[in-house]
Amino acid sequence: MLSCEKLTKFFGPFQAMNDCSISVGANSITGLIGPNGAGKTTLFNLIAGAHRPTSGKIVFLGEDISDLAPNQRFARGLVRTFQIPHEFHHLTVLENLMMVAPHQPGERFLSNWLSPMTTRRAERQTRDKARDVLEFIELTHIASQPAGLISGGQKKLLELGRTMMTDAKLVLLDEPAAGVNRTLLRKIEQKIEYLHDKLGYTFILIEHDMEMIERLCQPVICMAEGKVLIEGDFRTVRSDPQVLEAYLGE
Ligand code: ADP
């Protein structure tokens, strides 16, 4: 589904990505681990289009997307959770979901020519979908709360929900477990599993919570110093001496 081929990235004289190649199969959940500064976020930035590689290329669903803008990648189904705007604090949880729908009737070029009835129907469909998503992420009870007031874990669920409002095929999840309590963590894991098992989503996730990586991810890729150290199943990666050394040097 995705292949990154020999990516390099320089920030001035500093090389953050060093000939990094990964490939991600359709309907996999790939875990991206590595010590701080390994280049995980930089790799996400390159895949999502926030940064351009100094050299190398990125192929998504058979198309070279290296020169596409982030929104063009998004339109092809490559979604980074925070590529969807961070929650609008003053809007409700439900409205936050509705904001993400790819075809907002009010924003459509042709909307001036659409009858109010068509516009209202589209809005109703978006609202219905948002309600279904809310039910799935189990946040219906706080649908009308301002998103700024919900907990960190609920925000992570909302992020996942907003992904579902798009036509996502590959989702880049940035530390879905960070700052989340154990109960919500299990819930987030279950939702990721469901999206993967039942709806065919493909995920790459950066995560420091090794239990989550072990439970969800196959394969696991460990990065260090801007490149891939090793790729394999969790146990193989965890016990690799190079990986242990990379973490020790953190
Ligand atoms: P990780 O996500 O694995 O912790 P990062 O991708 O954030 O690692 O960072 C990799 C290296 O690149 C780090 O040394 C970091 O300081 C550097 N880096 C990342 N972004 C920039 C930037 N915009 N300018 C300069 N250096 C950067």
From TrEMBL:
Biological source species: Mesorhizobium argentiipisi
Keywords, sorted A to Z: ATP-binding, Nucleotide-binding, Transport
Taxonomic placement: Bacteria, Pseudomonadati, Pseudomonadota, Alphaproteobacteria, Hyphomicrobiales
ABC transporter domain sequence ranges: 2-250
GO MF terms, alphabetically ordered: ATP binding
CDD domains membership: ABC_Mj1267_LivG_branched
Protein's recorded name: ABC transporter ATP-binding protein
ATP-binding recorded as keyword: yes
Domain of life: Bacteria
Family: Belongs to the ABC transporter superfamily.
